[in-house]
């Protein structure tokens, strides 16, 4: 079995592509079920956030697994294979495990050390277990990765300063308006990012906050808890005429704020300054909105520029976490090699006991006068001989697993003992 990862990543893929290769919550069950039907996919999980879409799979054939994933993505998103190959990065082997530890620890995030990703990775594993697409390998990796990420954050305090995308959005607003406490804000959409944006605005001293949500009752419940206003999304244009800051984080499939709409709004505002921050993927605000006089627009790709101020301590913590990851990789490698050794040991025992059984049967045929007691004695002692002969080879396999050399020696071991037929039967 082999580990394989497909990644559409913020570092290498523009947002225009990322937002088109993204699995929404409503798509997840269909996606998990569909990918699991492909012949080379033995286990898998899918992680899809505003910054990445990644598939982690256990496959029985690397090239076949890659072809399966490309076909799956084509079926889901209608991209040509040529286009997919342009943006989809594939990684195999231990590098996949390494990436997953880094990912869950926040070392691969736009905001180094952010904590939201731990929950997103955990949720992906839970969905895999719910939809029965994970097995021994990914279930073990799940336990190790989540526990490691939690311990790493506690040990290094890498996430002590909250710096999620929603935090950075508010930091950006604070740098844009020196007197932010006197400003008003509207948050469009109250998913996780929207709620965090509200909390960060309140922490920054902004009290005049309105949230707009498609589901009004859900919005009202949160608004009452936060002591802010809640209005239906239908009054968006009316609210935009009054506020100073707009943060959008909906899951809408289309743009909710357009250039034409904002021209009218800004005319009504007499072009009073308006800061728009779009943290949604797919984006909520047309990029052309920034051409309207009085509007400053940022989207998720722009927010990276704000990260640099508070990064040195996080980088030092990340180096410590990276060192610890190397130990985890060794531990997981030993576990997987032990896992790989189990079928080899079973094949060895099967082969030797097949030989013992055939030999005993031949002896019984040639000496039919043997009593029942004599037959049992012969059976017992020949099995004992087999066990004694196998003791050292099995011990050697376990030693190689502990030393991390079994993967290199596995084929030689199979050849020496002639186990190919038995291994083929097990496949």
TrEMBL record:
InterPro entries: 4pyrrol_synth_GluRdtase, 4pyrrol_synth_GluRdtase_dimer, 4pyrrol_synth_GluRdtase_N, GluRdtase_CS, GluRdtase_dimer_dom_sf, GluRdtase_N_sf, NAD(P)-bd_dom_sf, Shikm_DH/Glu-tRNA_Rdtase. CDD domains: NAD_bind_Glutamyl_tRNA_reduct. One of its GO terms (biological process) is protoporphyrinogen IX biosynthetic process from glutamate. Residues 322-419 form the Tetrapyrrole biosynthesis glutamyl-tRNA reductase dimerisation domain. The keyword Oxidoreductase applies. Substrate binds at residues 49-52, 109, 114-116, 120. Possesses an unusual extended V-shaped dimeric structure with each monomer consisting of three distinct domains arranged along a curved 'spinal' alpha-helix. The N-terminal catalytic domain specifically recognizes the glutamate moiety of the substrate. The second domain is the NADPH-binding domain, and the third C-terminal domain is responsible for dimerization. During catalysis, the active site Cys acts as a nucleophile attacking the alpha-carbonyl group of tRNA-bound glutamate with the formation of a thioester intermediate between enzyme and glutamate, and the concomitant release of tRNA(Glu). The thioester intermediate is finally reduced by direct hydride transfer from NADPH, to form the product GSA. Belongs to the glutamyl-tRNA reductase family. Catalyzes the NADPH-dependent reduction of glutamyl-tRNA(Glu) to glutamate 1-semialdehyde (GSA). PANTHER family: GLUTAMYL-TRNA REDUCTASE. This is Glutamyl-tRNA reductase. The gene is hemA.
């Amino acid at each position: 079995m082999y580990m394989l990862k497909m990644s559409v990543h913020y570092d290498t893929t523009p947002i225009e592509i990322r937002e088109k290769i993204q699995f929404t919550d409503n798509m997840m069950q269909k996606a998990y079920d569909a990918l699991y039907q492909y012949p080379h996919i033995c286990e898998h999980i899918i992680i899809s956030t505003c910054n990445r879409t990644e598939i982690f799979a256990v496959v029985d054939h690397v090239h076949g697994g890659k072809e399966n994933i490309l076909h799956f993505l084509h079926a889901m998103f209608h991209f040509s294979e040529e286009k997919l190959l342009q943006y989809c990065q594939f990684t195999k082997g231990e590098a996949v495990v390494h990436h997953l530890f880094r990912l869950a620890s926040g070392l691969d995030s736009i905001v180094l050390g952010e904590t939201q990703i731990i929950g997103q990775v955990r949720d992906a594993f839970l969905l895999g277990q719910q939809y029965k697409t994970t097995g021994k390998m990914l279930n073990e990796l799940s336990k190790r990765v989540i526990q490691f990420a939690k311990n790493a954050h506690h040990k290094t305090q890498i996430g002590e300063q909250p710096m999620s995308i929603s935090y950075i959005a508010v930091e950006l607003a604070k740098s844009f308006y020196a007197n932010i406490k006197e400003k008003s804000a509207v948050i469009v959409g109250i998913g996780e990012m929207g709620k965090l944006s509200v909390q960060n605005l309140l922490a920054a001293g902004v009290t005049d906050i309105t949230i707009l949500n498609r589901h009004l009752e859900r919005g009202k419940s949160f608004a009452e808890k936060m002591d802010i206003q809640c209005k239906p999304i239908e009054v968006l244009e009316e609210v935009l005429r009054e506020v100073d800051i707009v943060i959008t984080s909906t899951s809408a499939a289309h743009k909710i704020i357009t250039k034409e709409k904002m021209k009218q709004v800004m005319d009504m505002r007499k072009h009073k300054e308006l800061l728009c921050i779009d943290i949604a993927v797919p984006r909520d605000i047309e990029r052309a909105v920034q051409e309207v006089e009085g509007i400053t627009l940022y989207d998720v790709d722009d927010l990276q520029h704000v990260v640099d101020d508070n990064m040195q301590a996080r980088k030092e913590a990340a180096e410590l976490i990276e060192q610890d990851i190397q130990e985890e990789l060794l531990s997981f490698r030993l576990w997987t090699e032990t896992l790989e050794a189990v079928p080899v040991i079973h094949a060895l025992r099967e082969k030797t006991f097949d030989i013992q059984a055939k030999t005993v049967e031949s002896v019984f045929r040639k000496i039919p006068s043997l009593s029942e007691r004599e037959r049992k004695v012969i059976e017992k002692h020949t099995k004992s001989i087999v066990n004694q002969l196998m003791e050292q080879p099995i011990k050697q396999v376990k030693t190689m697993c502990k030393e991390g050399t079994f993967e290199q020696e596995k084929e030689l071991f199979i050849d020496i003992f002639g186990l190919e037929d038995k291994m083929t039967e097990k496949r």
